[in-house]
Specification:
By secondary structure, the chain is an alpha/beta fold. It has helices at about 15-30, 55-65, 75-80, 95-105, 120-130, 145-155, 195-210, 330-345, 355-370; strands spanning about 5-10, 35, 45-50, 70, 85-90, 110, 135-140, 165-170, 215-225, 230, 235-240, 245-250, 255-265, 275-280, 285, 290-295, 320, 375.
Length: about 375
């Protein structure tokens, strides 16, 4: 068995997501397991070069995890012919410029979502990558969650019959930062810095809905900034200019209706931080990050509405858990392995910049729907 090494420029790994999910739990975890296994049995190890603005943070990360290379000079990292892939986990406002630079340097590009703040920018990146002939991909991690993989298994097996509707609940209370520190960075709540839950989460819902139930054809949305003032990491109050909640109705192909609430201003009263209930003619399911419960048509109880009597029946007990029946790896790591195989041996990878552009389109038109108070149809994106 032979082994090769692939240089990977990783920009933005000093941030929470870039560090935890992409450096620690993906790239370094891949190397710990011996690399990415190709179809012929060859192993591909990843040689990261960490890029960022803070020398001290980069140096500390490299020392902590025995990473050999770091730099504050993105251009130098991109000029190195040993570096084949560019990965971007920066704040959204910095992403387009850096990705453009990477494409022009001939690097294959893998990026966090959203790939841009606007549809025009996202489409421009997709066109640029296509013209340059570089492979490109966007992180779509939620497709690889155990709960949604179980849900996909049910769909593929015909469990639901005809799917009628999808209802999603996502979110939790993000502390304002005054008397208790916030769980998310303050830029998330400033529109001028690329913040906003619609741009963040509608990109997720776009690929989740498309890959499981059908492409979004129209959206009706209402967004809000429920908490108008927050406190940043330095203890300074600031005005929240970005939306912190988004309530969407999505019309999918084949007539499926999806409703998804996304909020950083909701206290959790569910089993997991995100849950989707899918109702079909032959059965229903509730899927979260890891778990999935089902109720078949033949075992559905017969509720009777009577508010004058207390409810004695436990409806939750009527649901049956879906067994794991598999070993579920970290979803970010799984997609990294897919992208590496895509780059090295041209294995399929459908989660490209065009898919990322559709996510940005949904977010953009969701904001338009909210601002104008109307239903908005999604046109096909022309590359």
């Amino acid at each position: 068995m032979t082994t090769r090494t692939l240089g990977v420029v990783m920009n933005g790994v000093t941030g929470r997501m870039g560090y935890r999910q992409h450096l620690l739990r993906s790239v370094l975890a891949i190397n710990e397991q011996g690399g990415v296994t190709l179809s012929d049995g060859e192993q591909v190890l990843l040689d990261p070069v960490l890029v960022g603005r803070s020398e001290s943070k980069l140096r500390d990360l490299c020392q902590k995890h025995d990473v050999k290379r770091w730099t504050t000079d993105l251009g130098a990292a991109l000029r190195d012919p040993a570096n084949i892939i560019y990965f971007d986990a920066q704040v959204t406002t910095a992403r387009v410029e850096a990705i453009t630079q990477a494409i022009e340097a001939g690097k294959h590009v893998y990026a966090e979502k959203p790939i841009a703040e606007s549809l025009d920018e996202a489409v421009a990146l997709a066109r640029l990558a296509g013209a340059a002939g570089v492979k490109n991909g966007v992180v779509q991690d939620k497709l690889f969650l155990p709960g949604l993989l179980k849900l996909k298994r049910l769909i593929d097996g015909g469990f639901f019959g005809r799917i009628l509707s999808v209802r999603g609940e996502f979110g939790y209370w993000v502390f304002e930062g005054d008397w208790q520190s916030a769980q998310r960075p303050s830029w998330n709540y400033r529109a001028e810095d690329g913040g906003g839950i619609t741009l963040d989460m509608f990109c997720h819902w776009s690929y989740v809905l498309e890959n499981l139930f059908g492409r979004v054809e129209a959206v009706t949305a209402r967004v809000a900034t429920h908490i108008p003032q927050r406190t940043d990491e330095a203890g300074r109050p600031y005005t929240a200019t970005a939306d912190d909640a988004a309530y969407g109705i999505f019309e999918l192909s084949d007539g499926v209706i999806a409703q998804v609430n996304s909020s950083w201003c909701v206290r959790v009263n569910r089993d997991e931080l995100v849950e989707f209930q899918v109702d079909g003619t032959n059965g229903s399911a509730v899927a979260g990050l890891r778990g999935c419960r089902i109720q078949h048509r033949a075992t559905t109880p017969k509720p009777v509405w009577n508010p004058d009597l207390p409810v004695t029946h436990s409806f939750r007990d009527d649901w049956q858990p879906v067994p794991d029946n598999d070993v579920f790896d970290n979803g970010f790591k799984t997609q990294w392995e897919l992208f590496v195989r895509h780059v090295v041996e041209d294995a399929p990878f459908p989660y490209d910049f065009l898919a990322g552009a559709r996510g940005v389109q949904l977010a953009e038109l969701g904001l338009c729907s909210s601002a104008e108070g109307r239903r908005v149809e999604l046109p096909e994106i022309d590359l």
